[in-house]
Amino acid sequence: MSPSGNGRRRLVADRRSNQAPKKPAKKKRATSSGGSGGGRGSGGGRRRQTRRKAPQRGGILGFVARIIRFVFRLIWSVMWRGAVVVTLLVAMGVAYYYSTLPEVDELLDARARGSVTMLDRHGEIFAWRGEQFGGAIDPTNTSIHLVNAVVATEDRRFWWHLGVSPRGIASAMRINMREGRGPLQGHGGSTLTQQTAKLMCLGREFDQDIWDSEAAYEADCRRTTLWRKVQEMVFSFAMELRYTKSEILSIYLNRAYLGAGARGFEAASQRYFGISSTEVNPQQAAMLAGLLVAPTRYAPTNNLTRSQERANLVLGLMEQQGYLSAEAADRARANPATLSDAARQDTGGYFADWIMQSGPDFLTNETTEDVIIRTTFDPEIQAAAEAAVANVFANQVREGSTAEAAIVVMSADGAVRAMVGGRDLAGGGLFNRATQAFRQTGSAFKPFVYATALDLGFRFDDLVLDAELTINVPGSGPYRPENYDGQFRGEVTLTDALRHSLNTPAVRLSEEVGRDLVRTVASQFGIESDLAAGPALALGASESTLIEMTGAYAGILNGGSAVRPYGLTELRLMGEDAPMFEQSTGIRERVISEFSAQQLTYMMSQVTAAGTGTRAALDGRPTAGKTGTTNSARDAWFVGFTADYVAGVWMGYDDNRPLSGVTGGGLPAEIWRQAMEEIHADLPPRPLPMIDPIAEARPPEQPQVLNAEGLVRDGTGQLVGPVTPRGTRIPIGNAQGQGNIGNAINDVLNQIFGPRNN
Question: What does the pLDDT read at residue 72?
Fold first, then answer.
């Protein structure tokens, strides 16, 4: 049909046909020129043009296509709107963090606690505690090798990126998933800026009200979650806007933890190499940078070989990135970094821990300052003590034994020179059996019984009865002490009683002079532990520590004055010349007279000359000491001295099991001898401060003995009391701490002889 004159088609339905419809011919585009052919409007007007819609695919495929187009349009709409929102949020976050960031100088030393550096008696460093901070550094005043090593190892694009490396993050996530971890577990792909943000804990300071400890605070700062990662990125953008690249690297160089208590590269350089970070060479710089991945594992003080192998990998990265020539890298590998003498010295850990515990907390464990402590520690004496313990256990103790040992060496004034707190000779953070273990002392306590008697006027050659003895202890029944060998020897001198460590004479003498007085003398000599109240006091039923016992024996050596063991001689703040604290001696008040101490020293010298401690004797050098073995051999002691040093040794099990075949005169005396031989190797022999037994022997016309009851009578049989250094006679049955058996006997004798005059 032809169109009507007005251009419209007739409203007649098309004839149906089984043939496919013909493709309509293209029409010429209508122009805006005048004419009326085919136009709707009046001549000369613009024709209204209509856009022909694209044909739509019908059926199911067309429906699916339309759904897909809708979804993509929806996703795109959400994405670009979401991107705008995220951008705004990031900008707000960056602005917030930017406003909170302080000046760089305030971020270089962020330690909550200070450090303690310990010097030995010669002024050399032997131990560090706390977090060391050697001083602030930046890329311009430190070794260029150190800067290059850090950048090559941690972030080779550091100088160019804007704080975040999407490529690095994607690569790290891919590696983590390939290794079977979560995408955020393991490698982080963090830039140096992001690592610095983590070191700053995103600007949060340590708050005791939030975290239980600094360790918990740091663990929370290192925690990696998706949200924390997002915050880290935003914080990094803010840092890049706020600081220069050099300033960001300065913060990192000063805050990074590098093992062994070193915080920052300056402290680590001093800790491991004994030099400033400005002086480190390529191999040393590579070793320090290699610590960043795992400071404790790769610390050269833990495993030098492993640290050197890690340094070689860093040298390879420096070579690949052009920071080192091939020749320089080869020279560095051929001469690996090694530790300084001070860092190599893995000793004195127990001593250092004791200093930290015995010093004032606000300047040791809880210090917020950097403190330098000069001590009494002697590395050579420490080495001798450690060697003796190691040698005895290696050659004289059965393989697999879990028995422990401890040793303390000090001067007569209480200055502690060496300390071994267990078979783990490095010590440091371990249980210190020299200062923390309270053990029964056994016969090592007996010298304080004899010291009490001697100071009351008894003599080294007085006789005492070694015979069966029964004491009725209220509430406990009869107490019957026995000697180690089960034998009794009758009348013996006080010297022989101590030499052979006889039990009944010691108990008899303690009861006669009074237990309370024995406890007083022992406590005044430095035994601060609770002392037993019963007659077993004389046989060492009380507990004490090795350092207490060794210090008490030092009081005997120095002539009867008590000492307080000490190890700190000077304490000052780093950078200041004037010390805050000084100590030159541990000698305190006098406990017994000098003559009494000299008699006791002679009696103890017979223990090592011909008594229970002969294994401790030193060739050509006078020694004195006392053995101690507790019930069932749960503890074995030997404490003794020369004219120069006092040393105490303890052996036993931590769980209080009995030792097998060990007494104080056995392995403890052997450890003591080996240590003291080495300690005195370059010292000339000196006589002990003791009496001459021949010159001091009692004249024959003035005999004084202890009768069967243990009481003193003169040559005429008259009952007398011992004479004090002041010349006042004290009756045997005195009310000052008199034992039960002494009181009973005294009552009987008073009835026979009548009351005695004081």
Answer: 86
Q: How far apart are CA 522 and CA 531, in angstroms?
A: 9
Output the CA torsion sign for 347, 353, 358, 364: positive
pLDDT of residue 752: 33
Q: C-alpha 417: how far from its chain's center?
A: 20
For residues 201-213, average pLDDT: 81
Give dist(CA 183, CA 305) in Å, integer: 32
- How is residue 431 written in tokens? 């249980």
The DSSP-derived string for 345-380 is: ----HHHHHHHHHHS-GGGTTT-SSEEEEEE---HH
Residues 6+ apart with CB under 8 A from 648: 407, 408, 546, 547, 549, 550, 553, 637, 638, 639
Give CA–CA dist 707/394, Å, rounded: 49
DSSP 730: -
Mean pLDDT calculated for residue range 405-413: 98
Q: 0.90 cut: is pTM over it?
A: no
Tokens of 627: 């053995």
Q: Coil, strand, or helix at residue 544?
A: strand
Q: Are 602 and 623 in contact (CB under 8 A)?
A: no
Bridge-based pairing of strands 370-375 and 115-119 is parallel
Amino acid in position 680: H
Q: DSSP labels for 612-627?
A: TTGGG-BTTB--EEEE
* DSSP state, residue 51: P
Q: Is 629's pLDDT higher than 90?
A: yes
Show Cβ contacts of residue 704 under 8 Å, excluding neighbours closer than 6 positions: 459, 462, 698, 712, 713, 714, 715, 720
Report residue 199 as tokens.
Answer: 């070191």
pLDDT in tens, 247-292: 999 999 999 999 988 999 999 999 999 999 999 999 999 999 999 9
The three-state DSSP-derived secondary structure of 99-111 is: HHCCCHHHHCCCC
Instruction: Render the burial of 388-426: b for 16+ CB within 10 Å, e for the rest.
Output: bbbebbeeebeeeeebbbbbbbbbbbbbbbbbbbbbebe
Distance CA 206, CA 210 (A): 8
Are the CB atoms for 650 and 567 separated by under 8 Å? no
Please count the residues of the chain.
758
* pLDDT interval class at 140 (50, 70, 90): very high
> Do residues 404 and 651 touch, judged by C-beta distance below 8 A?
yes
Indicate the range of 41-45, 325-329, 354-358 predicted with least confidence: 41-45
CB count in 10 Å sphere of residue 677: 14
Q: What is the 3-state secondary structure (H, E, C) of 547-608?
A: HHHHHHHHHHHCCCEEECCECEEEEEECCCCCCCEECCCCEEEECCCHHHHHHHHHHHHHHH
Average pLDDT value over all residues in the chain: 84
Which residue in this structure is represented by tokens 């993050």? 169
Mind telling me the catalytic residues? 154, 443
Please compute, for residue 115, the number of CA atoms within 13 A of its CA located in the half-sphere on the CB side. Answer: 22
